[in-house]
Design a protein that fits this description.
globular, 7-stranded mixed sheet, alpha/beta, two-stranded antiparallel sheet, Rossmann fold, single chain, 29% strand, binds S-adenosyl-L-homocysteine
């Protein structure tokens, strides 16, 4: 876990504190119940993950473009996926597929011992890494790779989160899930996607649907083919 008080001292967190508070209130009204997740989202400034020109919309509950045809996820969905993954319990080692700008990774870093995150677009990861440094989030390990293959060298993971939607549940991720372990991921195409919860326990894997969602494409060996 990371001591977030240093953010305040660095002066990054304060400017947007009030707008951030309004976003947290909105997420609570939308049904997010895990106060630990809401506290992390209250501490991590979202505006520094996006282009300055979009700064005024940083605390709206919307996804925004981050370049390379990708987006920063909507705060509600970040909160919801983190809440489902935590299920009220402390997270230790988490694997994230689809770093993007790194906002979800940062929220996880505030809540877990260590975050492993994989992004396939190199310049996006380079920028995310600079943001992690700026926020002094030193418990995030990252690499450029096809995340549908997971990160076998660091498996197993008690928790896995995928922030892009593929046509199916990538088998390597199921294999790299610890027992017990939990994974959240969107599955589907542009016509419709469902957030799935995959649980592994006692050698058995169970899959349940959580809710409808809208993500960019998961592109890779166990995802969609690159255009
Ligand atoms: N977690 C981000 C969401 C970024 S959008 C946030 O907090 O806002 C999803 C990201 O998944 C994109 O950056 C996209 O490039 C990446 N992605 C798509 N397919 C991937 C793959 N096979 N491996 C790793 N990253 C992938």
């Amino acid at each position: 876990m990371v001591d977030l008080t240093n953010l305040r001292h660095a002066g990054i967190g304060m400017t947007s504190a009030r707008t951030r508070g309004r976003l947290i209130e909105r997420l609570r009204n939308e049904g997010i119940k895990d106060e630990t997740v809401l506290a992390a989202m209250n501490e991590i400034p979202r505006h520094i993950f996006i282009d300055e020109a979009l700064g005024t919309r940083a605390y709206d509950d919307v996804s925004l473009p981050i370049g390379h045809g990708q987006t920063i996820s909507q705060p509600y969905i970040v909160a919801r996926m983190t809440e489902v993954l935590r299920n009220g319990k402390q997270l230790n080692r988490v694997l994230e597929i689809g770093t993007g700008c790194g906002y979800q990774s940062a929220i996880l870093a505030a809540l877990c011992e260590r975050v492993y995150t994989v992004e396939r677009i190199k310049p996006l990861l380079a920028r995310a890494r600079r943001t992690f440094d700026r926020l002094q989030l030193y418990n995030i390990m990252s690499k450029v790779a096809d995340g549908t293959e997971g990160w076998p060298e660091n498996a197993p993971f008690a928790a896995i989160i995928v922030t892009a939607a593929g046509p199916l549940i990538p088998q390597p991720l199921v294999d790299q899930l610890a027992d017990p372990g939990v994974m959240v991921l969107p599955v589907g195409d542009r016509e419709g996607q469902t957030l799935m919860l995959v649980r592994k326990e006692g050698g058995e894997v169970t899959i349940t649907a959580v809710e409808s969602v809208c993500f960019v494409k998961l592109v890779g060996t166990h995802g969609w083919k690159a255009a």
